[in-house]
């Protein structure tokens, strides 16, 4: 096995697909071997509901892995977002089998068929500028703290599985007011919105929309002059955060509390340390 030259530009692929896997353990075993052969590092999560992950390697290696995943049943149209890095952003390759590819803990929501309506980045600005639309950031509190869209509600959740309780409380208030508003939701790459919009629709809301490809696709496609995004977008690798054009952001990870902080601003470490240091790992 030949390792890629760590001084050259590497390709990063963020991917997910909701598909029915009868034997996710078998799929995981095959993909683990394929990643090893291709010298790819990162994380892939398999479950009976599909696949999710972020991986990095040579351009040819990533192309081969994506082709192998798209050959799996139900994955032909899998969403993939690409970026580049001068050095390998992951220390090793992890392929895991879990109950969910992104943990919401709200039962079988069938995101493959019951998710909200996709909205292209080119149409997103007009949707969230509508005062009658409720805009919801589905990410965790430390992600929202470094960047979000104008007018977006921050659920203040520490974990994605806290989102259902927050939404149910909001829905109770809206129901008491006799309204079921149009809802626009967004997340980093789109996967959390597939599940959260399916949850919202299961709660009886029908006008539910989410940003196709997530914030990453928006930042890649939208010219900065036309953008309604403010700040950086947190990512779950050693880049820590990105901005328009998916260029590196101005945040690093605090070695003390594991939260991002701006390199040109003050940081109050939640763990009581000075902050700074090597990048840590956060989980969704």
From TrEMBL:
Q: What is the annotated role of this protein in its UniProt record? A: Catalyzes oxygen-dependent 5-hydroxyuridine (ho5U) modification at position 34 in tRNAs.
Which is an annotated GO molecular function term of this record? oxidoreductase activity, acting on paired donors, with incorporation or reduction of molecular oxygen
Q: Which domain of life is it from?
A: Bacteria
**Which organism encodes this protein?**
Sphingobium fontiphilum
InterPro entries of this UniProt entry? Rhodanese-like_dom, Rhodanese-like_dom_sf, TrhO, TRHO_N
Tell me the Gene Ontology biological-process terms attached to this UniProt entry. Answer: tRNA modification
Which Pfam families does the UniProt entry name for this protein? Rhodanese (PF00581), UPF0176_N (PF17773)
Identification of the protein by name: tRNA uridine(34) hydroxylase
Per its UniProt record, what Gene3D superfamilies does this chain match? 3.30.70.100, Rhodanese-like domain (3.40.250.10)
> Is-annotated flag, keyword Iron?
no
